[in-house]
């Protein structure tokens, strides 16, 4: 506090009295502690007063730029940006692409990290850096983050005292040695006094902070001030604006800030003075930093007598040159003769897998070379460990029962891991072929290999669940999944009532009950009442009228024929009104058929039916015996799906045992063939198989159950978990996982875009409704035939004695005809031909014929008597008997009386009847 008061008193009471227009702040102290904080306070106070400062501070990198942005400062010393750029140039020189940043809580540590990030972003076009960690060390345990990462190159920014503590802890954590490089800033090197705690081979950046260098910079500062004053005064725009600060005061009286200070600072900032030999002019950026700077590259190595370590200059970094860095021989960490790789040393992993498309596919290797082609993936062992004893490896590679080629999503992901992390691996298939579940209290399959530490990692479509997480370590999930249900579409099925579906029930009832009945009765009524239409009395009285056939049933026949536009013979009405009504009905039929036909096409197309389950908790699955017949569905035993169902749905699990399959391919094939109604398994696997189905007959239904993810599995407390997790997050962030998913998860089936195959013949199911309609018509016709027989056998004989056929003829001409004399004659003739007359109908008809014959004979006698009275002799003719009339009817017409023929007599008989 006393220091701050002294600075405030000096600046306010002494500097302002001398009319100070700029302050030269020059010092070569490199303590980066108390003095840096005081310098920060001084610069902030000068900035508050608006007085420009020309400075050269050996510890300028410790100044917090965010806190000093309001200051009007020109810095002649290399900035923190220069130091970070020089440190990254060293990394670029030796192709160290990844590194970590370690800082203490030194003033300006945030600015250092930010400067490094900005420089990395600028260099991304020609050299890609990856910042693995950015650690602020408040206690030595913070360095554990480096232990768990792949960091082998560290940029250290701290004071020398703090660096000693940090590096001591790093040595204890084995973060020093021939595989680790520490690159430090000037604040760590300070006065080139190397501490014995520092590891050999450290690299650093530094600039000359000697007294001679300080005196040279004072000379440059005076030149800058002089040139700035000259430019300010020479500018006509500044007339009357004096460089006078006597009116400034730190107290309440007077001005608190110099109005012309910022204007004068711009002139100072624009000054350009000649630099030393072979160096560019001294110029400044908009922030007041040097545009061009030179830094020395330092290397910590043994002294000539090997008694202690010294910082030796091994090169130089010049910001203005194209090849900024010039380095000579370096003493590398651990006295190595070659630079470290900058990445973790290669390690070997045994990786266990279980095939499942599209994550891992198996295919045979080349039988000649025993290698996998480019599109076949990598070689993997499918034989158990005991089978490999006394086997020649070269020959085993050519044998498909020992080695095959693995490819798929997980293999591509593994290749990316191997490239990024730098390890080798051996792929081995799990011996028992199981995914890993608890069986009789013991783990089997993939999980058992991890629990027993027979493998380092499991890589396949292994689902993460709580039971597995309790015994092994999982990485971050690389893909989300859940339990899904796949079913098959049953194509080519049309509803048997599809021809009725264009209209709803109400519409059909309106057409059938109202429209057809109304049209029929109106046409028949108008025809019956029309003067030129059907008049029964006029027809019977006028024998010259051409026989005209029309009745209610024939009107129905007309209405139905017009409605369906049937090419059949119909009896049309004669009346004008009834004909007009018939045309109105025909217009209705045209509109009706157009609407019906247009909509029928939509309902007669092939329909896709499937079992639409809502999900795993569908009641038809949870309680399979509640649905009759029960659905057939299954899964893979000892899988995550199987264990989940066993845990939450006991009844379902017990029922499924009889339908479980050994592989997903078998399950899907049975669904397609109809042996299974559904197959339950991992959602992403089923989605892939659905996409691979060329006929697009498969589909997943319902929502996914027990959402989880696929992860890499490691033995408990494995040291590899963190490094794989970090890479997984990077792959997800940069889109690599999504690109792999799109490549491997697509297939030939495109829902919604399936092309119509016009060459496929229509199956019977596609027009089954037409056959059903025909069958229904045949059955209805058979029923009508039965009713006709019932009528002729039991009903007609009772009606014939009461009705002359007139009323029945209005309804049906055929029914009326069966009750008339002529119909009776036809029927009696047929009966006599067969010599049968054993029913009352026959007796009635014979009685009628005999009665008419007797009446005819009586009339003949009356006519003979009349002729005799007039003296006319009657011809000798034989009157035919009733049997002759019946036997010769329609064959020949025997003369009855003169020109009287049987046909005329029949007409008379009919008229009398």
Question: How would you describe what is shown here?
Answer:
- The chain is of the alpha/beta class and 913 residues long.
- Among the domains are: 1-77 and 211-247 and 254-291, Rossmann fold (3-Layer(aba) Sandwich); 83-207 and 295-327, Response regulator (Rossmann fold), CATH 3.40.50.2300; 347-481, Periplasmic binding protein-like II (D-Maltodextrin-Binding Protein, domain 2, 3-Layer(aba) Sandwich), CATH 3.40.190.10; 498-605, no CATH class.
- The chain is built from 31 helices and 27 strands.
- The strands form 7 sheets. An 8-stranded mixed β-sheet has the order 5-4-6-7-8-9-10-11. Strands 16-12-19-27-20 form a 5-stranded mixed β-sheet, sandwiched between helices. Strands 24-25-21-26 form a 4-stranded mixed β-sheet.
- Helix 4 (109-123) links the parallel strand 4 and strand 5.
- Helix 1 runs parallel beside helix 2 (34-49) and helix 28 crosses helix 29 (840-869).
- The longest helix has 33 residues, at 768-800.
- It is elongated and about 185 Å long.
- Residues 536-541, 753-759 and 888-913 have low confidence and may be disordered.
- This is Glutamate receptor ionotropic, NMDA 2B.
- GO terms for molecular function: ligand-gated monoatomic ion channel activity; signaling receptor activity.
